[in-house]
Write a structure and sequence with these properties.
binds zinc ion; 7 helices; alpha+beta
């Protein structure tokens, strides 16, 4: 955080330096936009192949074939979810929230992609529907579906609570779900858990202090966000112990509700009809020589 009382005086040209107009770091104009019209046409041919529920203060895993869709729905009460994505065949390739933020901004919506980390750095999933797109940004600078937070975790809670051990943070929920789904030890599973897309969570940065804030999620039963899978995916979704994240997280105090995950599989013929000669997203083309001789 910035200090309240700076110890160093402003230079003579401070105002000129402060007035410099910012430029966008990573203009994404050169990215090929996702073919949303064709994706939505394809979605008409998709049929439900899986339904799983993330129970309150717990997580579930689900697999999605490339070219299919998955939907996360608020079903019983206002509830936020923490979403992890892995390459189904290589969980070392996982969602990279920081780069996704750099490309698409602090909060995602329809047409944005969830990118994987280096070196693959490719689209893992593309948002095709978002019933909360009406929210935009509120007067506090808050919005939904952020990639600015991390995931609630027992380590930070241990630090800030003065030594408490809480086991149902999203980090731990995702660890247990990954471990059960892949048959790995919790310790190995934990190494694959990563920063999330905060589904339905309403967050921003305080204009005064720059601190990460949350406020009651505007999500209501029936709201959903839907994704097209750009590669074969393993997903993990935690129903955050914070519930609607209006007051508190990392405890059993908030009202907490389940989240529904549905997978909709597309027939190969429909995929060809709608997307032509389509293939899953390929890994990034950088040659990886890094200038080394
Ligand atoms: Zn959480």
């Amino acid at each position: 955080m910035k200090v309240d009382n700076p110890e160093h005086p402003k230079p003579a040209d401070a105002n000129a330096r402060l007035a410099v107009t910012p430029v966008v770091c990573y203009p994404a104009d050169s990215l090929v936009p996702p073919p949303l019209v064709q994706y939505r046409q394809l979605r008409q041919s998709a049929s439900k192949s899986l339904e799983v529920t993330a129970a309150p203060r717990d997580a579930c895993c689900f697999e999605v074939k490339a070219g299919s869709f998955f939907r996360i729905t608020c079903v019983e009460g206002s509830q936020v979810g923490d979403l992890n994505l892995w390459n189904l065949h290589d969980p070392g390739e996982r969602f990279y929230s920081g780069k996704t933020r750099a490309l698409h901004g602090t909060h995602l919506s329809t047409g944005d992609r969830m990118w994987s980390g280096f070196p693959a750095m490719r689209p893992m999933a593309t948002i095709t529907e978002d019933t909360l797109d009406w929210y935009g940004f509120d007067e506090y600078g808050g919005s939904v579906h952020d990639v600015i937070g991390t995931r609630c975790d027992p380590y930070t809670h241990h630090l800030l609570s003065g030594g408490d051990h809480y086991h149902y943070c999203c980090h731990s929920n995702l660890t247990r779900a990954f471990s059960a789904h892949r048959g790995t030890s919790p310790a190995e599973a934990e190494s694959y858990v990563h920063d999330v897309l905060n589904v339905f969570m309403c967050t921003g940065f305080s204009r005064e202090s720059g601190q990460y804030f949350m406020k009651a999620s505007p999500v209501r039963p029936g709201d959903y966000i839907e994704f097209f899978a750009d590669i074969d995916l393993l997903g993990g979704l935690s129903a955050c112990p914070g519930g609607d994240c209006s007051e508190i997280h990392s405890s059993d105090k908030a009202n907490c509700y389940p989240l529904l995950v549905e997978v909709f599989e597309t027939p190969a013929a429909a995929l060809a009809d709608c997307l032509g000669d389509w293939n899953p997203a390929t890994a990034n083309g950088y040659d990886r020589s890094h200038g080394a001789t």
